[in-house]
């Protein structure tokens, strides 16, 4: 019965981690699963709690730094950006007039929804713009300081 309670606690902690961005609660879930294993082997409750505490503590100190290192954006970690990260900071060509609410640009042959960064600027078809960030499927753009090539 104790093993089932530890498993339920581990699942609850894993679900709770899905609603946070800390990468901390999941390690207590790992500890709960380890304690469930100890309970399944017939360990007394005190030993289960010690296993929970030790595995949770070791997981936090040993694994969390590794997880956080790999969770950083590529530009911060020095890796080569890919996906949406690779688009940010790049350039696009305006296809349909861009204002603070809508527009369309072409980035590396793909068409993207776009809107201006400050909401006031307007960009006309043919202009080059710089992608400041990507918000969902919309590129937030600003005038490119480099002249049109």
TrEMBL record:
> Would I find Transmembrane among this entry's keywords?
yes
Q: Which PANTHER family match?
A: INNER MEMBRANE PROTEIN YBBJ
Identify the keywords attached in UniProt to this record, alphabetized. Answer: Membrane, Transmembrane, Transmembrane helix
Main location, first listed in the record: membrane
InterPro entries in the record: Membrane_assoc_protease, NA-bd_OB-fold, NfeD-like_C
Q: Where in the cell is it found?
A: Membrane
**UniProt cross-references to SUPFAM superfamilies, sorted A to Z:** NfeD domain-like
- Residue ranges annotated as transmembrane are 28-55
Checking Pfam families in the record gives:
NfeD (PF01957)
Q: What's the protein name?
A: NfeD family protein
């Amino acid at each position: 019965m104790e093993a089932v309670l530890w498993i339920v606690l581990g699942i609850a902690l894993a679900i709770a981690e899905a609603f946070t961005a800390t990468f901390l609660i999941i390690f207590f879930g790992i500890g709960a699963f380890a304690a469930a294993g100890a309970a399944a082997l017939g360990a007394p409750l005190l030993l289960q709690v010690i296993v929970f505490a030790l595995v949770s503590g070791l997981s936090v100190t040993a694994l969390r730094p590794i997880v956080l290192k790999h969770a950083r954006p590529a530009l911060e970690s020095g890796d080569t950006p890919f996906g949406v990260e690779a688009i940010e900071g790049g350039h696009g060509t305006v296809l349909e007039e861009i204002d603070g609410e809508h527009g369309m640009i072409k980035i590396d042959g793909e068409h993207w929804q776009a809107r201006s960064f400050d909401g006031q600027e307007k960009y006309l078809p043919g202009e080059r713009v710089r992608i400041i960030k990507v918000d969902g499927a919309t590129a937030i753009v600003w005038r490119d300081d480099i002249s049109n090539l």
